[in-house]
Amino acid sequence: MNKKLFLAQPRGFCAGVHRAIATVERALALFGQPIYVRHEIVHNTHVVDSLKQKGAIFIEELDDVPNGSTLIFSAHGVSKAIESEAKERGFRIFDATCPLVTKVHMEVSMMRQEDREIIVIGHSGHPEVEGTMGQSDTGMYLVESVEDIPELDVNNPDRLAYVSQTTLSVADTTDVIAALKAHFPAIIEPPKADICYATTNRQNAVKQLAEIATLIIVVGSPSSSNSNRLREVAERKGVTAYMVDNASEIDPQWLEGHTAIGVTAGASAPEILVQEVIEMLQKHGVTAIEELEGITENLSFPVPRGLGRR
Ligand code: SF4
């Protein structure tokens, strides 16, 4: 049975991921190896493995970084406590936090200065959420779902604000925000939505893909929040969906009975992995490929100061 492959547009790397990877590569080129990176620079196995081969060392605890080292913060951002500790230790620091995550940090700081407590909508344990929650020592609450809201024990319901993780499901977050507003009518929202353009565009593109394809393969690593959300969005549209780190994880049996297959990739997944998936699918019955029309993204962020090439 001939199969046709449809490719989502946009897919793959976003501006924040490009910048984060370039930050590590520029630091390696300028200062030589090793370069220490706190947490995976972006949540993708292929990216992390290739940077390890070039001399990056990924750590979680600053105690694992020798004095005098160069240290990079990952795209997900860090808490104020980590930032201060790193500065005190005297590392040469480059901050690869995505500017759109930094925007959320600045919202938190500003609203805490206005003496508002902040509700962070996000996934517990995700490094971005830890970094955002860690922008203030007090007055921060985490909400993962609508069910968490009645449990919140805030000091003053009239002095509340919310922010969100940048890589959430747009639909789920809309529900949580509506429930927050119903429970705390005086809560104020960020000046501009925190879910980033890349997350929104990729979720819209996968919805478009789900109108045509009956099977969708999302290229992304298990730890990638936005890739997981793409798989969920596809499933909610009634499509069979799998997330794979690379082509070798695709089981040819998944393809049986499907003549229209969709492929997309999370914001941290490199295009080379998508191309390998395409090659694999061509070996298993795909005879035609169509790139769907979608938004062309042309946002880019310069690497941090001190790394040249701005
Ligand atoms: S997914 Fe959004 S917030 Fe995350 S790195 Fe990309 S642009 Fe930045």
UniProtKB/TrEMBL annotation:
Cofactor(s) needed: [4Fe-4S] cluster
Binding-site residues for [4Fe-4S] cluster, renumbered to this chain: C14, C98, C196
BP GO annotations: dimethylallyl diphosphate biosynthetic process; isopentenyl diphosphate biosynthetic process, methylerythritol 4-phosphate pathway; terpenoid biosynthetic process
Keywords from the named record: 4Fe-4S, Iron, Iron-sulfur, Isoprene biosynthesis, Metal-binding, Oxidoreductase
Family annotation (CDD domains): lytB_ispH
Residues that coordinate or bind isopentenyl diphosphate: H43, H76, H126, S224, S225, N226, S268
E.C. code: 1.17.7.4
Manner of cofactor binding, per the entry note: Binds 1 [4Fe-4S] cluster per subunit.
Binding residues annotated for dimethylallyl diphosphate, in chain numbering: H43, H76, H126, S224, S225, N226, S268
GO terms of molecular function: 4 iron, 4 sulfur cluster binding; 4-hydroxy-3-methylbut-2-enyl diphosphate reductase activity; metal ion binding
Binding locations of (2E)-4-hydroxy-3-methylbut-2-enyl diphosphate: H43, H76, H126, T166, S224, S225, N226, S268
Record-annotated active site: E128 (proton donor)
UniProt-listed PANTHER family: 4-HYDROXY-3-METHYLBUT-2-ENYL DIPHOSPHATE REDUCTASE (PTHR30426:SF0)
Function noted in UniProt: Catalyzes the conversion of 1-hydroxy-2-methyl-2-(E)-butenyl 4-diphosphate (HMBPP) into a mixture of isopentenyl diphosphate (IPP) and dimethylallyl diphosphate (DMAPP). Acts in the terminal step of the DOXP/MEP pathway for isoprenoid precursor biosynthesis.
HAMAP family on file: IspH (MF_00191)
UniProt protein name: 4-hydroxy-3-methylbut-2-enyl diphosphate reductase
Naturally occurring in which organism (per UniProt): Oxalobacter vibrioformis
Gene: ispH
